Each structure stands twice: as C-alpha cells, then as structure tokens.
Amino acid sequence: MIKHATLTAIALATGVSAAQAETLNVGMSGGYFPFTFVKLDELQGFEVDFINAVAKETGDEVNFVTMSFSGLIGALESGRIDTIANQITITPEREAKFAFSQPYVFDGAQVVVKEGNEDTIGSVEDLSGKTVAVNLGSNFEELLNELPNASEIDIRTYESNIAQDTALGRVDAFVMDRVSSAQLIAESPLPLALAGKPFSEIRNALPFRNDDEGQALRDRFDTAITKLKEDGTLTEISEKWFGSDITTAE
What we know:
alpha/beta, 7-stranded mixed β-sheet, 4-stranded mixed β-sheet, 8 helices, globular, disordered N terminus
C-alpha cells in the first residue's frame, strides 16, 4: 500500500508561473535515517530537504510517496512515481534502464559489526565464512558478490532490521553506506561499530524513466542541482544532517 505523505509544498522559482508547475511524485522509503524517515508523524531527512530545494528551483509541487525500498524501482518503471530520492547508487545495470541525474551524494560501502567484533572483522577479507545482511533491493548485495571471496560469504537480504539482527548476533555484519552507518551508530542505542574503511566508492543520484519525458525531467532537475551546488544550498542541507559536506567527491 502506497502512503502519500502530506509533507508537500508548492514552491515557485523565478520566472515559473503556477500554471506551468507540475505535481511530481517522488518515491522514498521513509525508513532510511537520516536520509528519509518519519518522526512525530512528519516525513523528514536529507532527501526531503533536498527535493524541496530542487522543487523551489523548478517551480514544481512535490508529492512524496513512501513505500518499501524494494518496491521503489518497480514503481518508477510502472509510472506510479517520477523519480526516487532514497540514495539510489549509479550502477551499469541501472544506467542501462534509467536516465540518471548528476550525483548529489558521494559515499562508500561500509561493513558494520556488533561492538567488540571489529577486532575480528576489520575488512571485507574477514567476511569469509560470515553471514552478512543487506537491505533487499539495494546495490550492496551486488557489491558483495563482486568481491574475490564472495562465494565464501553468506549474504542475507532483509526488508528491515539488519542493524538489530547484527547487534543481537543473528548475523555477523551488515553492509550499508558509510554515512548512514555512522549516523545510525551515533543515534542508536544498539551496540554497533564500523569495521574498517569503506570498500567501494558510491555515487548516488536520482533515476528517471529513460524516455523523452523522463529525460526532460532529468535535465530540469540537473539544472536545479547545479544551481544548489553553486549557491551553497546543497552544502547547507548536508551540514544540517551530517555535520559535513557529503555532496562533493573527495
């Protein structure tokens, strides 16, 4: 069941009239702190602020549509949503299907373990013989399968609760992006720790359907994203949520 978030607003950019504005359906999970999450019945996070800033530039109305992460790609393909703001990583397979905006977050894949186990699991090489959780539909399963020791790793896909099961010892580790992992550890009471350094660079962007309409919408968003980068707005949003700028490559 798709839930339509009420956190929407019409924001008119200079030179764009209300008659020209569109209502854009933007999909997100609402369960990926601090990028998209619900607190006190309010949908918020980095992605929400980012999309609202883009809409202010393009002059469009935004309707946030929340659903399970694993359903977002299908919703985009079927036309139920116009794009996904949920840290979608650019991969060759996805590039073959979708028209991507420029990257707006640069990150890395991170192994996370139960606190105290970082001495035994300090790198992806140490995952051999271990059970490792990833979110269903994420690209982290693919990244693990590309490792030289992939055949020795028991990869398990989850709809949710990968952090809890790692803390409880039901799996040995989980893999997520480093930014979210660090924020989760800082905000959560769960006994978790980062295990080593990120093992793969990640470039996250907005996917659109690869047709004339989707490409035109992508181009409008790209123009807005460039403006937000140049005037410092994107950095400000990043600083608000992370205390650092994750919107530029190191």
